[in-house]
Write a structure and sequence with these properties.
The protein is α/β, with parallel strands linked by helices. It is built from 12 helices and 8 strands. Strand 7, helix 8 and strand 8 form a beta-alpha-beta unit. Helix 4 runs parallel beside helix 6. It is globular, with a radius of gyration of 18 Å.
Length: 297
């Protein structure tokens, strides 16, 4: 049975994995991150995405992060990204997510092999079989090395109506083509750190999944846009765009500097888990400058 379908809109924040000096997950820092995000005005919380450095986390650590985060989210909907290399692995993590109150799931193609879109379509359908909640696919071939075509996305929605959200990582021009093809059947959330934020809204996106370094300010820009205060939305976006551009050079760059930008704004300390990009003095100075511009979370 299809699930009820309120629109998934607004900015949802994908959490960073925060580590202690010894490289273990820092439970206190994770809870502080959720608190900061929850109070910042965003519309949802996501965990175990690319910004969460999920490939560095064991399955036990992934479960532990869900257990840490879920009780702290309050009224905000929780979504969990599934990254396992098999149908069984993703279904096991899906059950953990559901047991801890996740409202929806985001599936990534398994990071093993490279297959035609039809193979990934069947994989996603098998993972979601029997789960009565909405399900998204993260379609990010530039980051994951594999993905679905527009036709694949629409066919997935036709074969299981619970696939009514797409987490895209697409330029606004490509997003517009997807939105035109999907109509009102699929809610489109974009990422890319918030690049082209307002053009993505013009193209048909109904929200975004962004790391917490600029998510609060992105939500402010989107709120202004939805209220018809276009010039103010443009000014807000112009104010945050340099920080977005700085952080979104690559996923590794985001984890190195975006995480530090968030920490500077939230009053937290960052410890890396190897392997990790090493920050430079120039990069840290940029983080400090952007933190002053954006202000505290």
């Amino acid at each position: 049975m299809p699930v009820a379908r309120p629109c998934v809109d607004g900015v949802h924040t994908v959490l960073y994995a925060l580590f202690s000096g010894d490289g273990t997950l820092d439970t206190g820092a994770m809870r502080a991150q959720v608190q900061a995000v929850r109070d910042s005005g965003v519309k949802g919380i996501t965990v175990l995405g690319l910004a969460t450095e999920v490939q560095k986390l064991s399955p036990a650590e992934q479960r532990h992060l869900i257990e840490i985060v879920a009780p702290e989210t309050g009224d905000l909907p929780l979504s969990v990204t599934l990254t396992g290399g098999s149908v069984t692995a993703q279904r096991e993590m899906a059950r953990v997510a559901l047991d801890h109150g996740a409202r929806w799931l985001i599936l990534q193609p398994p990071a093993v092999g490279t297959y035609p879109g039809a193979t990934y379509l069947e994989f996603f359908l098998a993972v979601a079989e029997g789960f009565d909640l909405r399900v998204a696919v993260q379609n990010a071939p530039q980051y994951l090395g594999r993905g679905l075509s527009r036709d694949d996305i629409l066919l997935l929605r036709d074969r299981n109506p619970n696939f009514d959200v797409i987490k895209a990582e697409a330029p606004s021009v490509d997003l517009a083509r997807l939105a035109q093809a999907a109509g009102d059947r699929i809610d489109i959330l974009n990422g890319r750190g918030g690049l082209e934020l307002l053009d993505c809204l013009r193209a048909g996106a109904c929200g975004f999944i962004l790391a917490p370094d600029i998510a609060d300010r992105a939500q402010q820009a989107m709120t202004l846009w939805q209220a018809g205060r276009t010039q103010e939305a443009e000014a807000e976006y112009a104010a945050i765009l340099p920080a977005i551009t700085f952080c979104m050079q690559s996923i590794e760059h985001l984890i190195c500097y975006g995480k530090r930008l968030f920490a500077a704004r939230a009053g937290l300390t960052i410890h890396d888990r190897a392997p990790a990009q090493i920050p430079t003095d120039f990069g840290l100075a940029a983080v400090d400058r952007y933190a002053r511009v954006l202000g505290p979370i």
